[in-house]
Amino acid sequence: MDHNPPVLKLKMTFIEKLLNVAGILSFFGIILYVIATWNAIPNQLPGHYNLSGEVTRWGGRAELFILLAIGLLLWFGMTVLERFPHVYNYKNLTEANVKGQYINSRMQINVLKNEIAILFPFIIWNNIRVARGFPSSINTWFFVIFLLILAGTITFFIVRSYRLKREAAEVS
């Protein structure tokens, strides 16, 4: 079955819908914030931070749109990828576990996508705050925590995938 996995039409779970709303709201929220505060945003904003959270490059206000565009491009790209769980790489896919594996892998993409959807608006918000003279919320701990969240998400879904395989094998 691994060579020609079936194409299944699976409804989005409540969690996926909820996370999508959170991701979309984070983008809309930052867009509204930028529009509402545009005249108060300084011309120079942080463009890059080192691992200690110190600004190592400054750039213009237009860079806010580059960050927003990258975040939105990732969000929409991963949204498209979610729709095709049958093209992902699976091991030991069977008729007994195919539905569970598809939902699990699709949810993994969804969670990662929406974690990123919250990250980019946060960085934009932080850049505006730093440009206004407030301390940065991006520092070593920020990077560590965000990487732990991503690693935790990936680990959770890999473990869940193995459990789904094992449960399907026990039922067969």
Automatic annotation (TrEMBL):
Where does the chain cross the membrane?
Answer: 18-41, 61-81, 111-128, 140-159
Where's the DUF1648 domain? 28-71
- The answer to keyword Transmembrane helix applying to this record is yes
Say which domain of life the source belongs to. Answer: Bacteria
Q: Does the keyword Calcium apply?
A: no
Tell me which UniProt keywords the record has, alphabetically.
Membrane, Transmembrane, Transmembrane helix
Pfam families reported for this sequence: DUF1648
**Protein name as it appears in the record:** DUF1648 domain-containing protein
